[in-house]
Amino acid sequence: NERKIQDMDKLSVIGQLAAGIAHEIRNPLTSIKGFAQIIQERVDQPDVKTYLIIMLDELERMNQIVTEFMVLAKPHEIIDIKKVDVNKLIRSVIQFMEPQSLLKKIRILTSFECSITAFLDEIQLKQVLINLLQNAMEASESTKNCIEIKLKSIDDQHYLIQVKDQGPGMPLEKQNRLFEPFYTTKENGTGLGLLICKQIIDAHKGSIDIISRHGEGTVVNILLPKVFS
Ligand code: ADP
Ligand code: MG
């Protein structure tokens, strides 16, 4: 238990650090973007204009990453509950992951049984899906099997998002440790991804379940309420 408290302390230090760094990056980023925009409007040479457009695109991407990174800092604070199109949200996360999935040659398929709108924090739910897809992609690296995201309505009040991979799966003793802070089997892992997912889903009053079979793959089920109260 003492160990757990120490881990949580470490976690909040990392969170504060992450928030500080993200904030420090945000300011110069905004300023560079502003100047690039001004130059882009004033410049005449078409090739220079093209370069500036690429720069602005990349700056916007960095901005996006910083925004998503800032979620790390306050994982259990609900920032911004809004009515969100969940199908669209899932599609935008898949698009965000596309450079990586193309590079790794792993396909991400969707199977939407219906359209869902729900009340949630969009940035935080995106963070959950990014973390889960990241894990699924890392697990699928050896097999190259595709990943599937399902969306389905459970009843009037609940819906399910399922992320399924056909990677190596995990034995039970690993499954029991998944939500421990800093539990990782990866060389460059943080062991924070799933813990952050759990904190965000808990804050939304939902649940997250991971079912895995050694040698067959892993299924993550997220059950969420459609209305937030
Ligand atoms: P990290 O990815 O940084 O290691 P996570 O909290 O995201 O941290 O995951 C913790 C551990 O759980 C991983 O190191 C891995 O061993 C295991 N794991 C998570 N998702 C999967 C998956 N889809 N397939 C197999 N193992 C997984
Ligand atoms: Mg991870």
Low-confidence stretches: none
Structural class by helix and strand composition: alpha+beta
Nearest-angstrom radius of gyration? 19 Å
Mean pLDDT: 88
Helix content: 40-55%
Listed once per kind, the bound small molecules are:
adenosine-5'-diphosphate, magnesium ion
GO molecular function: ATP binding
Catalytic activity: ATP + protein L-histidine = ADP + protein N-phospho-L-histidine
Keywords: ATP-binding, Kinase, Nucleotide-binding, Phosphoprotein, Transferase, Two-component regulatory system
Protein name: histidine kinase
Explain what you see.
One of its GO terms (molecular function) is ATP binding. It catalyses: ATP + protein L-histidine = ADP + protein N-phospho-L-histidine. Its EC number is 2.7.13.3. It comes from Heyndrickxia acidicola. Keywords: ATP-binding, Kinase, Nucleotide-binding, Phosphoprotein, Transferase, Two-component regulatory system. Helix 1 packs antiparallel against helix 2 (46-70), helix 3 (86-104) runs parallel beside helix 4 (122-139) and helix 4 (122-139) packs antiparallel against helix 6 (193-203). With 229 residues, the protein is of the alpha+beta class. Strand 6 and strand 7 form a beta hairpin. The strands form two sheets. It has a five-stranded mixed sheet with strand order 2-4-5-7-6, covered by helices on one side. A two-stranded antiparallel sheet has the order 1-3. 23% of the residues are buried. It has six helices and seven strands. The mean pLDDT is 88. It has helices at 2-42, 46-70, 86-104, 122-139, 172-175, 193-203; strands spanning 81-85, 108-112, 117-121, 147-153, 158-165, 207-213, 217-225. The structure holds adenosine-5'-diphosphate and magnesium ion. The site of magnesium ion has 4 residues, from helix 4.
